[in-house]
Design goal:
Elements (H helix, E strand, L loop, with lengths): L1 E2 L9 H8 L14 H23 L5 E2 L25 E3 L28 H13 L9 E3 L4 H4 L4 E5 L8 H12 L3 E7 L1 H15 L6 E2 L42 E6 L5 E7 L3 H6 L8 H20 L1
Parallel strand pairs: 3-4, 3-5, 5-6, 6-9
Antiparallel strand pairs: 1-2, 7-8, 8-9
Amino acid sequence: MQDNLSNERWIPRATLFILLIDMKSLACESRVRNYRCLLRGALLVLALGLSAFQNIAYAQREFRVYEGFEYDPDLELPADYQVPGEFVVGRLMYPPMRGFGRWGGGDWLQGGTSWAVDYPRGDRTLVRLLRRFTTINARSVEQPVNPDDAEDMHHWPFLVAGLAGYWDLSEAQVRNLREYLLRGGFLFFDSFFGSDSWIGFDQGIRRIFPDRPMVDLTDDHPIFHTVFDLSNMTRVQIPNMYALYGGGPGYLGDGAVPRWRGILDDDGRLMVLIAFNNDVADSWQWADDPAYPQESANLGLRLAVNIAVYVMSH
């Protein structure tokens, strides 16, 4: 299923080129019909043609649906799924460690592997919540983003990554993600628990930023206060739904202690938010299920609003 979507914030390169032209340089007096004027006109036509070609070459990728990790993407598409929005939930695709996928295999480019956890149900539920409780113009469907496509990645300033303890990035993907983040992108890591997962995640994130420390966020960080004041956020764990079944503790493995961490750019902007030993996406997609703690669902909703507003304002 593939349908083209446009991004309202994308200004065509040909338009930018025209705006930057000194209009006086285009003026050729009718009595001066010389080769210089003709050449200038020919060069302009060529420049606009090349610029228009760049428009096509660098247009963002189309919306598409892949197989989920936990379930098939059998959700009915919203009626307005082709309508652009100012805020789009980007889902980071990535190759997993060998053998980590549904039934121990799978092609990550087709979904069904670790990147597709909570996808697409969690992403679309997040959008519905933002639309219900804020005035954010959010697109109704998510956007899978391939880190091999550096140009496309820059169209989507907000990315979510799940189960990143099992990612296995190539060198090109590492470079692309580093550039994406340093140029203003935001990446939210969620849905991973336990020391084993942390080892895999830590190895990957240190390849992206070997010279930038991960910091433990404190309760006074702006992302916890952009709209709602979440004064105890760093001491709270948002549970995994499956770990709650049968009276379970809500966490997986030895992930009993929540850790909220981040990586900052040179201006102090939070560009990476790490919700380790948490499953924020479960609080979105299971918010209406009586088996999921209502307090956790409300906290996940408020955090989602804060993250979206922070991303759009920083």
